[in-house]
Amino acid sequence: MTGNALQIPFGDPAFLAGNPDPELAELRRGCPVSWQTDAELWAVTGLREIQTVGKDPATFCSGRGVLLSDRGRDIAAEDSLLYLDPPRHEQYRKLVNRAFTPRRVAILEPRVRELTVELLDSIDPSRPVDLVDALCAPLPMLVIAELLGLPAEDRDSFHRWSDAIMEAATDLTEENALQALELMGYFDIQLDARADRPTEDLLTGLLAAEVDGTRLTRAEVQGFCMTLMVAGNETTRSLVSGGMVELARHPEQRARLAADPTLIPAAVEEMLRWVTPIMAMGRTTTGDATLGDAELGAGEFVLLAYGAANRDEEVFGDTADVFDISRTPNPHVSFGFGEHFCIGASLARIEARVLLEEVLARWPDYALAGDVVRAPSTLFRQITRAPVLFAP
C-alpha cells in the first residue's frame, strides 16, 4: 500500500505557502500512511491514524525531534516541552497547566476584549490596512506577554524574535539564530529581576517551580519561556488571520455570524480545522510498529500531517473540503492529539471568539483589498500579509 504512494515535497517550504490541499487529499485517499522516499519519512495523512500515534508515545516518541529540521541534530530536552516524553512530560507540563485551565483563562476574557477594542479603535476603517500587522499579530502577542508578565511596550521586539524563531524551525540561519539568542538574553534579564523581586506572574512561578523536589534549571525555565512566547502567539495569529480571510471569501457565512453571534464558537472550530495553523509535526518510532496497513521500522521519522487529516472524508464526510461555520461535530486535530494536546487551546479559542465578536459588531462587511501572502514554511500555514478594508 505504500510503495506507489504520491510523493509530496514536505521538505520544501514553498509547498505549504501555496495550495497543498489537493495533493495532500490525493495522498490521503490513496495511502493514509505512506513512505516518502525523497523526504525519508512516513507521512500520516489520515485523522484516525494520527490519533493512534498520539495515543502511543511509547512507540512514537517526541524526544528525538518533532520538526523536520530536528533530524540530524542533538535534541536537548530543556529546549521545549515538545521534546519531552512520559513520564517527564507530564511532570513538567503540570507546572504551567494551572495557568491555562479553561476556568483560569476565562478570567482573562475581559482583558482580551479590552486589548481587542484598543486595537480596533486605532484602525481607520476607511483605508486599507494589513489585517496581520494591525490586529492578528499584536493581539495574541499582547495577551501572552501579559500572561508571562512582560511589558507591552516590548511587543515589536517580541514580534521580531518570535518570527525569527519560527523561521529557524524551517531554515536555521546565522541571523535567526542570533535573534533567538537575543530573546534568551531578554528572558534572562526578566528572570533575574524576578529572582530579586518576585511578582505575581508566570515567569516568577516558573522560577519557583520544582519537579520531584528539584528546582528547574535556568535553561529549563528559558525553554518554557521560549515555547510559551512563540507557540502562544504564532498559532493564534495564524488562526485568526486565516479565519478572517476565509470569512471574507465566504460573505454569506460571515453574515450569518454577524446576525447570530452564538454561532461564533462553532465558527472558531471550523476556522481551526480549515486553517490548521500547525500543518505537520513529527515523531520517531522506538521500535518496529504497525500503523494502518504499513509496517514501520525502528528509528524512522513519522510526520503527522494535521492539515491533511483535517480534510479526511472518512471523518468529516462529503463536505470535508467545504468551509462550514455550523459544522458539528468537528473533531479536528489542530491542537494536536494525546499528551501533547496544546496547552493554550482554551486561550486561543477565547481570543478568536472575542476578536470575531468585536470585528463583526463594528464592520460586518469588511473585504479583502489585495492579495493574501503566505510565509514559506515546513511547519506553519501562516499569512504574512492580508490587506483589508474594514468599511468598504
As laid out across the biggest beta sheet, the strand order is: 1-2-10-7-3
| CATH homologous superfamily designation | Cytochrome P450
Assigned CATH class: Mainly Alpha
Largest sheet: 5 strands, mixed
User: Can you count the helices?
Assistant: 17
Question: How would you describe the overall organization of this protein?
Answer:
The protein is of the alpha+beta class and 392 residues long. It has one domain (13-389): Cytochrome p450 (Orthogonal Bundle), CATH 1.10.630.10. 49% of the residues lie in helices and 11% in strands. Strands 1-2-10-7-3 form a five-stranded mixed beta sheet. Helix 6 (109-121) packs across helix 8, helix 10 crosses helix 12 and helix 14 (264-275) packs across helix 17. The longest helix is centred in the middle third of the chain and has 32 residues, at 218-249. The mean pLDDT is 92.
Per-chain topology:
Blueprint: H1 13-17, H2 21-30, E1 33-36, E2 41-44, H3 47-54, E3 60-61, H4 88-97, H5 102-107, H6 109-121, E4 129-130, H7 131-136, H8 138-148, H9 155-170, H10 174-196, H11 202-208, E5 210-211, E6 214-215, H12 218-249, H13 251-259, H14 264-275, E7 280-285, E8 289-291, E9 294-296, E10 301-305, H15 306-309, H16 313-316, H17 345-362, E11 367-368, E12 373-374, E13 383-385, E14 387-389
Parallel strand pairs: 2-10
Antiparallel strand pairs: 1-2, 3-7, 4-14, 5-6, 7-10, 8-9, 11-14, 12-13
Concise synopsis of the structure shown:
This protein has 17 helices and 14 strands. By secondary structure, it is of the alpha+beta class.
